[in-house]
Amino acid sequence: MTHTITVIRGDGIGPEIMAATLHVLDTMNLGLAYEEADAGMVAQEKHGELLPQATLDSIAKNRIALKSPLTTPVGEGFTSINVSLRKKFDLYANVRPAKSFPNTKSRFPDGVDLITIRENTEGLYIGDGQTVSEDGEIATSTSRITHKGAERVVRYAFELARKTGRKKVTIVHKANILKSTSGLFLKTAREIAAKYPDIEANEMIVDNTCMQLVMRPEQFDIIVTTNLFGDIISDLCAGLVGGLGLAPGANIGDDAAIFEAVHGSAPDIAGKGVANPCALLLAAGQMLDHLAMPAEANRLRKAIVDTLEAKDNLTPDLGGSGTTMSFAEAIARRL
């Protein structure tokens, strides 16, 4: 069966890491077809808008997108493209694995293998109700949590634990202080956890979670939390395993899913052929899992690990002298 996916090559190093990723996927002969679409600054230059309707139509039709980093211009009037995509397609679950890899700059080379699942569509991060007083002295923003939003992302976390054989879900909150918003999230999470007696559930306040992650990350399996907390925790976890160059991300909804490298577009090294493609390759692995190809996803991940272990054409950030494409070709040879 052929799956058509929307491919967004993105800005900066985006086209380079996408070319490398598609080269590896093509080597695997998975029956994937690609429909190109633009977003970010390249879309602004070509179409006069950051997120063209044609791109939205392509994602809606194909229901799967693989996306390189995008650049959102800094300044008033520009909304985050990623936030816009999450809102448009109701991509409520942001799934961020963090796993130790060989020959990477990790403080815990053997001890990290966890997933952060972040509610993606509500909470303080969305920036609802932002106002600044006329004198510029007072700024206000509204946090909004719903039972529906909390219920579906927590359920997703427990279902993922069951599906992947993980044993524990940690519910991260600040209900001791944010009694209404975080309190509702925690109350709803407890209701859902009770329906999964086969999965251990524990609760942890967000500040303690951050401390525990940098002291004993091996105690975590799956973390589920609200939008802003998840944004912070998921990057912290990437730091535990060597940085964002090894951090994939999935944005999952009922009708669409977007898989991405979560690092930036790195314009300072764009065009030099030295960008590490691992984050987008690992995101492609998440995409294959979503497409019910777990064996192929695991084959891809094993080829990445084997290439890292062999130090074969690693990019400079990983201590090698390879290029983006030579690294990808080394992975492809193992496939």
TrEMBL record:
Entry-linked PROSITE patterns: IDH_IMDH (PS00470)
Keyword Oxidoreductase: yes
Highest taxon listed in the record's lineage: Bacteria
Keyword Disulfide bond appears in the UniProt entry: no
Annotated EC: 1.1.1.41
Family indicated by similarity: Belongs to the isocitrate and isopropylmalate dehydrogenases family.
Protein name listed in UniProt: Isocitrate dehydrogenase
Origin species: Lysobacter soyae
Organism phylogeny: Bacteria, Pseudomonadati, Pseudomonadota, Gammaproteobacteria, Lysobacterales
